[in-house]
Design a protein that fits this description.
The structure holds two protein chains of two kinds. Chain A has eight helices and ten strands. Chain A is α/β, with parallel strands linked by helices. Chain A has a domain of about 170 residues: P-loop containing nucleotide triphosphate hydrolases (Rossmann fold, 3-Layer(aba) Sandwich), CATH 3.40.50.300. In chain A, strands 6-7-8-3-9-10 form a six-stranded mixed sheet, sandwiched between helices. The longest helix of chain A has 16 residues. Chain B has a single domain, classed as MetI-like (MetI-like fold, Orthogonal Bundle). Classes of the chains: A alpha/beta, B mainly alpha.
Chain lengths: ~250, ~240
């Protein structure tokens, strides 16, 4: 890979809440068009890492650079699109207004034009008939698909997905993951935090395992899930199977 | 009860009611402005101003309006500030109402989930846009019921205005009782006129609440839609 195709670069990132260290010396690069999946046990720091990249957290050391620009909390961060675990649609706006708010107010784009684009995106995620619905009238899976569209319309360079299916009923998970898979096929750069291991394997170009605030393994999905290099990763993956549990 | 007396008193109570409504509206309008400013200072944790607001709120909420009016009406002239009764009534009501409104608006602002501003931020909206388009509409809708309660409470509080010689409803009733001893008629009219003022406020409040909180309450249409979706979703799993 050439030097120029690196979109995201994290160097010696350190993050702590008060005296509690959450991330220690994280080094990581993401190339344009790459889908990187972050896995690890709860509280390992993977969501915090995503939030740091999304400029939602201040960092105590190191730097995060996206497309040559340093990420600072509270600064402008137009290259990143983010979808959260909790449904974060604006409850007082209908689906179309949720999606068009940012393009209209931030990019000052023409209302009719944005609406057209929003409708096209909604159609692609199978929600063409929901543009007038309020968030509370949607199922969890539908809400997350709208949230994805809302982030996409701002044309971010990199999409961050923070456990977007963790709060969903099992039957809703698939419809959301399929949208993300579709984006991966189109060559979007993204970082995904997930506990859905099957999905991780399907979508990832690279899997990164984090534990105790450190990257402990970086691997291709094929190798990570079949022959992980570290004992910790093996243990972690074992928690997803019940083979060792005997009745 | 003598209908003749009631008929005679009606215009007097009518004038008094207008005064009550006028002063009440002015005082409440001002207290909304004060409340908005104070709640924003607290919500955005603006240093120094925040402490001042805190002191004001505690001072205003924990002293009776009557005493506040006495301070403004009799106290301020002692340090050379002249106050006329009308200004005194409006300022007094605003001083009391400001703190109630501040706490009402603050609770509304704080009820908006943090992830709302975070997602607004990741979409590129600045702080002002986030406040106007995302936080405020949601805060207003949660604040409506306590806000209406505040308005009613403040309108009723105007009944102590008589203490600073404002000819409001209470003043008129007491005055007429003192002059002619028609206690029953006077008290009857007093109750009727307060109801005439306050019932529409209550009704309007209920209407406003229904209009502004509609997006949170499931109506029949919504419920039917949800059920249809669930069926659709469970159907999809099969294929």
């Amino acid at each position: 890979m050439s030097e120029t195709s690196e979109l995201l670069e994290i160097k010696h990132l350190t993050k702590s809440f008060g005296t509690t260290s959450v991330l220690e010396d994280i080094n990581l690069t993401v190339r344009k068009g790459e889908a990187v999946v972050l896995v690890g046990p709860s509280g390992c720091g993977k969501s915090t890492l995503l939030r740091c990249i999304g400029a939602l957290e201040d960092i105590q050391g190191g730097e995060i650079i996206i497309d040559g620009e340093r990420i600072v909390k509270g600064g402008k961060n137009p290259k990143v699109g983010m979808v959260f675990q909790s449904y974060d649609l604006f409850p007082h706006l209908n689906v179309l207004d949720n999606i068009t708010l940012a393009p209209r107010k931030v990019l000052k784009r023409d209302k009719a034009q944005v609406k057209e684009e929003a409708r096209e995106l909604l159609r692609r995620v199978g929600l063409a008939d929901k543009e007038k619905s309020l968030p509370r009238e949607l199922s969890g899976g539908q809400k997350q698909r709208v949230a994805i569209v809302r982030a996409l319309i701002m044309q971010p360079e990199i999409m961050l997905f923070d456990e977007v299916t963790a709060a969903l009923d099992p039957e809703m998970v698939r419809e959301v993951l399929e949208v993300i898979l579709d984006l991966a096929k189109q060559g979007r750069t993204m970082m995904i935090v997930t506990h859905e291991m099957q999905f991780a394997r399907a979508v990832a170009d690279r899997v990164i395992m984090i534990d105790g605030g450190r990257i402990i393994e970086e691997n291709t999905p094929g190798r990570f899930f079949t022959e992980p290099q570290t004992e910790r990763a093996r243990q972690f993956l074992n928690t997803f199977t019940y083979e060792s549990v005997k009745k | 009860m003598d209908p003749q007396v009631i008929n005679e008193y009606l215009p007097l109570f009518g004038d008094a009611a207008l005064l009550t409504v006028g002063l009440g509206a002015a005082g409440i309008g001002l207290s909304i402005v004060i409340g908005l400013i104070c709640s924003l200072v607290q919500f955005y944790r603006i240093p120094a101003a925040r402490q001042i607001v805190r002191i004001y709120i505690e001072l205003s909420r924990n002293t009776p309006l009557l005493i506040q009016l006495f301070f403004i009406y009799f106290g301020l002239p002692k340090i050379g500030i002249k106050t006329d009764p009308t200004v005194c009534g409006i300022v007094g009501l605003a001083f009391l109402g400001g703190s109630y409104m501040a706490e009402t608006f603050r609770s509304g602002l704080e009820a908006v989930d943090k992830v709302q501003s975070e997602s607004a931020y990741t979409l590129g909206l600045n702080r002002f846009q986030t406040f106007i388009y995302v936080i405020l509409p949601q805060a207003v809708s949660t604040s409506i019921p306590p806000f209406v309660a505040n308005v009613i409470f403040l309108l009723k509080e105007t009944s102590v205005f008589s203490a600073v010689s404002l000819m409001d409803l209470m003043f008129t009733a007491k005055d007429l009782i003192g002059l002619y001893y028609n206690t029953t008629e006077s008290l009857f009219l007093l109750v009727v006129f307060y109801l005439i003022i306050l019932l529409p406020v209550s009704l309007l409040g209920a209407l406003l609440e229904r209009k502004l909180t509609g997006y949170r309450t499931a109506n029949e249409k919504v419920r039917r839609g949800m059920i249809a979706q669930r069926k659709e979703a469970s159907g999809n799993v099969g294929n």
